[in-house]
Structures are given as structure tokens and as C-alpha cells.
Amino acid sequence: SHSIDLDTAQTSVTIQSRYSCEDFRRKKIIWIIIIIAIIIILAIIATTIILTRKKNLEETSMLETTSITTEMSITTEITTESLETTTSDRLVFPINAKWKQNGVTVAGGYKDGNGLNQLNEPYGIYVDDDERAVYIADTMNNRVVQWKFHATSGEVIAGENGIDELSLPADVTVDKKNDSLIICELGRNQVVRWSRRNRRKQGTIIHDTQCIGLVMDDNGDLYVSYYYSSNVRRWRERDGSWTIVGGGNEPGNTRELLSYPGFIFVDQTYSVYISDIGNQRVMKWTKDAKVGKVVAGRSVFRNDLEELYTPGGVLVDRFESVYVADSGRHQIMRWSSGAIEGEIIIGESGQGAQANQLSNPQDISFDRLGNLYVVDQWNHRIQKFELDSS
């Protein structure tokens, strides 16, 4: 009896020991599985974190690149801000650029008249890319008008009351620092400042000048053509001082003199390019020079590509190519740097009122995209000729 009980007890202990070992193995396996699962989960989490961080870094890099690109774009726009006033290297089209021959009327074009959709023998122009507008010296209407890009009519900015306020404005430029227009008032022989905000005259800047053309350089100095005195002067408004920067004290056809100067262009080095109307040429006077250089045309008109006939508006690009309105032949010409003859870039079809024609063109200007704006005086309109990118 005791032997049976002992055997039974031993058997029970053996079974319990076996179950205990199996239970331990089972728990050990479960813990191993749990640990492996935890390791896998941690690996997944770590991988997810790494991938997320990588993605964020890539996005940050893209954003930084976009930011840099945007800043470069903004810098480019700022650099090209004052196409009309100065700085030849801001005109960035190719050296042999061409323009579409059919122009688009962007102001006027409804015969001569004083309606807000009309012009009457306009003369000077300023293209303001920042305001997306064109300012026009509407000479025979005794006013300066602003036409927004793609507008069908203009707004009177200066001379709303006609000749009582403004008399025969010949040219206009924009002083962006002071948010004002500066106008050649030929009818009163003066240069005046006009507020763009309240559209009121702010005062006379220069008295006793037969102003035909004017520009402002990057320093805020004004360059004004004195038509009958046959010189161009630089005015410093801050102290009222002036200096002759082209021509002398009388008309003449030598390289030291001018004869009835008109429109002006000033480049980044402060060289002055002048339409020398009486001598049928464009002259370049470098800063502080006493003698000018002929860069387009000659003193004698013979009706060929070496000559100009009553030159009007003048511009210069970064390659020092000279663009000039050949008013008497109703075309726009380009003289490459050092060339002895020019080429017709607009108006080969002769005088007329069609989209590919001009009639006595005067001032010219480029916008930031390289499109060419022409004051088509006797057609009482402003024509835009788009840069041909084909």
C-alpha cells in the first residue's frame, strides 16, 4: 500500500515536472515571439521615422530651392525695373532679336480726338511694368494719360482741365521713389512734377527750357534736352545744379555740337544717347566727355540704310545696339554696335495705318518681355510689336 502510494506520488511529481517544463518552454516561446514582434514593430516604427524625416528633408530642400528660384526671379524683376529710363543691360533679348511685324494697338487708334479712348498727336511715352500701364504725353490734347495693359480707354493723370493746367506735354517719365510723373511742358517751357496719387501739380522743377525729351537715371538725376539751345543737361533736383552732358551753347554739326536734340537714353555707365534731329543722327556722349560719337546716321540724308530722317525716340540694349524711330521714313531701325548702316526692324511696308505700318513714329520703349512700344503719332495711337520668339 505504501509502495503504491509512493509510486503514485513519484509519478505525480514526474508528470508535474514534465508539465512544468513544457509550461516553461511554452512561456519561453511566447516571450520570444513577443520580443520578436516588439523588435519588428520597433523596426517598422524606426523605418517610418527615417522615411518621414527623409521626405521632410526633401520637401524642405524643394522649398528652399523654390525660395531661391523665387528670389532670383524677384531679383531679375527688380533689375529690369526701369527699362525706359536707364541701363542698357536690362534689355535682355538676343542680339539678333526680331519682332512680329503686325502691331497691336494698345492705346488710341480711333482717329484724333479728346475722348478717353482717343489720342491727338501723342509724342512721348513711358512703359511702367510695375503698374502694368503706359503713360502717354497726349500732346495736342494737353494732357498725360494712363492706359492700363489691355484697357480699352485711358485715364487722365495730368491736365484734366486742359491747357489751363498743362500745355503741350512732349515727354513723360516716372519718379517711382516719389510716386510722381515728371513732364516736359513744351507750351510753357518748363519741366513739372505731377503727383500720381492725387493727380495734382506739385511744382515746377526747371524753368526756361525748351524740353523735348527727358529721362531719369538711377541716382534720381534728370537729363533734359534743350531743343533751341542745342544741348542736353543733367539736373540735380536736390541742389538745383545742372551740367551740360551733350552739345555746346549753339547748334552745329561737329562732334562737339548738337543741332536741335530730341529724345534721350541714359545707360548704366551714365553715357547719354541723343537723337540729334537737325543733324539726322544719334550721338553718344560718355560721362564727362567733351566730344560725342556718332552711333547711328549721318549729317546728310540720302535715303539709304546709312542715314536717318528726323530721328525720334532712342533706346540701347545690353549689346550697345541702338534702336531709333526713323520718323521721316515711318520706320524703326536698329544699328548694331560699330555698324555703318542700320536695319529696318519695324515698318518695311512704308507709311500707312495698317497693323504693319506707321506714320511719323516718335518715342519708343520696351517692356520687360522685350515687346516694343511705338508712339505712332499721325495715326494717333500706340502700337505694341511683340518680340518674335519663333
Automatic annotation (TrEMBL):
UniProt xrefs under CDD domains: NHL
SUPFAM superfamilies membership: NHL repeat
Protein name: Uncharacterized protein
Entry's Gene Ontology molecular function annotations: zinc ion binding
Bilayer-spanning residue ranges: 29-52
NHL repeats: 352-388
Keywords associated with the record: Membrane, Repeat, Transmembrane, Transmembrane helix
